[in-house]
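hi! just following up on the protien thing from before. the input was this:
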Amino acid sequence: MVALPVATVERALAHAEHPRLSDPVDLLQTRREGPGKAPADVQLYWLGFLTAAGHICGHGSLLTLVVTLGEEGRDCVATLMADLATEHIRYEFCHSSIVGWQVYLRDQGLCEALLPWGIPSDFHGDDPALLDDLPKEFVAPFIRGYTDGDLMSRRSSAGSRNGHFALHGTPALLAGINAMLKRCWAVSSGVVSQRQDRTELRVSDSGACHTIHSHLNSVASRFQAERAKVAPRK
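and the predicted 3d structure came back as:
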């Protein structure tokens, strides 16, 4: 008998059917999105992005997805809604001198569909358990999304700077990403360490950085092809 963490069980039981987002168990087992769902690559990109930059708060009909966008990320909200929403979502922007722009997306269905994926929330905290089960073909869009979300939300040097690749987050999440890099891309040089007030995953080996960016740079072209297959929604 396998003892699963309470948060993992609660997330699995919290599944809510959503027209555009797949259930984690279904997508990870079949590796294909169902009818009407967003392309799998697109879903995994936004799941990575929201893991880095999002947080779910509130209860019931007041569930709200808060996404931190920094100073220059407001334009991505329209793309997020076009990819994952089926109808108009109530949202509002606010600006903070500390974190920059944030958007509050008030949609109970979207929030309930994101909870089983482990998006940070008031309910389950930051739980990266699903990273252990991501198939190899889903790793690039997830990490590309996480990199973009990290760069926007933390005003950080996420991604490639001065010959290295770096991401920021919780120790458990970064350990999970580091394990994925080793398992799927044979990148074993990543180091997770505490730097001032944040935890960082850093890859400094030039060959490893080239491998990472080769995978991440392929995501944009794949998105164009996947989105072209999806008929405009009414």
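The first helix runs from residue 6 to 13.
The two ends are 47 Å apart (CA to CA).
cheers
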